[in-house]
Amino acid sequence: MTKYQVPKDFLWGSASAAYQIEGAHLEDGKGVSNWDEFVKIPGKTFEGSTGETAVDHYHRYKEDIKLMADMGLKTYRFSIAWTRIFPTGRGEVNKKGLEFYQNIVDECLKYGIEPMITLYHWDIPQALVDEYGGWEGSQVIDDFVNYSTFLFEQFKGKVNYWITMNEQNIFTSLGWLTAMHPPGKFDDQKTFYQVNHHAFLAHAKTVIAFKDIIPDGQIGASFAYSPSYALDCNPDNAMSKVDFDNLKNFWWMDVYAYGRYPKNAMTYLEKQGIAPAVTKEDESLFKKAASLIDFMGVNYYQTTVCEYNDLDGVTPYAKMNTTGVKGTNEQTGIPGVYKTANNPYLATTDWDWTIDPEGLRYACKEITSRYNLPIVISENGLGAFDTLESDGSIHDPYRISFLEEHVKEVIKAIDEGCDVIAYCTWSFTDLLSWLNGYQKRYGFVYVDRDEKGGSLKRYKKDSYYWYEKVIETNGTSLFE
């Protein structure tokens, strides 16, 4: 027996996103999304990779879910493509698209896998972008709520766990500040904060509507959380950590959990002239939704080290490593506030992401202390170069080591009082890694494809069998 105990009903899971796995980008009535258009811009993605075929989950979902069942997966987190349900964002329902997701849910339930649906994983209908700027227009709030409530009605009684938005902080930052995601705008800070305000309102109204339709269901948002450390005990660097947290972490999590923006951060933005317009009605909606959410969703990959940034220091607009060539990431920050620094105590991935298993426990404890909410770890994983051997095997001890150390920290966090109810790896199969193409692999299942194509055949990696044992033993195998 180990001193660590995982709850018997713990949801061992894995995750995916529609654009990254489905393919069939214009099949069976699906509409065009912002990502379908964005990837056509030369130089935006690695070797021009797109999700037009992705890993063909649209046609192979039964095979993929059977692989999940054989592993013993308890929950599968996946997103719904808004454009498959409402091809132009609203109006007539695309019955073929709805049927596809009904089939996925039913296939999961057939094997006893709890479906966990993400309503928005970055692919808004292009028609709404063309009409009113997508997330830039306040009309998106009602259109998102209409889309979401339709799905609640369709899947009530079958789907208990829902996530409103995936990594709102990432899709807005890369979309309106660095031009790396759609709509590809650069340094549009005023719009960035207003876009986030619209997304928060869409989240809030959706949570409120959800509780009317599925009162016993569970709902929250998934936040890309990078806990921070001060570089040292220099008060200037300690203050940079506080400012980083308020502007880069609590700006989102405080709205989800408390229904308000952090006061220090709002004061800073008001002085800069870039704060969003917030009405009393908005504040009321935020508060009501915050009282209703059931968990904090966390996508955890790395921690951040903060130090003071001079007024003429680095900006948020540095180069990001999207090639897997180690050492090509650059420092980012806000002049006069903070900048990121390397952590000399930790290794990094080929994409320069810091490997910090203890940071996940740190994140869980911070959320527990600050918000006292259950936690769904909705993503955690290692992107790496994998090799398919001639005998069909894939040896990925680096992934096993990464996940093992992170899962151990989750279990320790539970032992220390954190109410973690689910752990979803990213991802189940290999998939399109947005800007990084198909070379950056995350899955337990290798998919034979690269930027030029491939057979799309599935192969189990060594990590597949490792996770199978973790699930079978409810985590006790990690401490043997």
UniProtKB/TrEMBL annotation:
GO terms for cellular component: cytosol. GO terms for biological process: carbohydrate catabolic process. Keywords: Glycosidase, Hydrolase. Pfam families: Glyco_hydro_1. The keyword Nucleotide-binding does not apply. PROSITE patterns: GLYCOSYL_HYDROL_F1_1, GLYCOSYL_HYDROL_F1_2. The active site is at 379 (nucleophile). The keyword Hydrolase applies. InterPro entries: GH (IPR017853), GH_1_N_CS (IPR033132), Glyco_hydro_1 (IPR001360), Glyco_hydro_1_AS (IPR018120). GO terms for molecular function: beta-glucosidase activity. Belongs to the glycosyl hydrolase 1 family. This is Aryl-phospho-beta-D-glucosidase. It comes from Vagococcus teuberi.
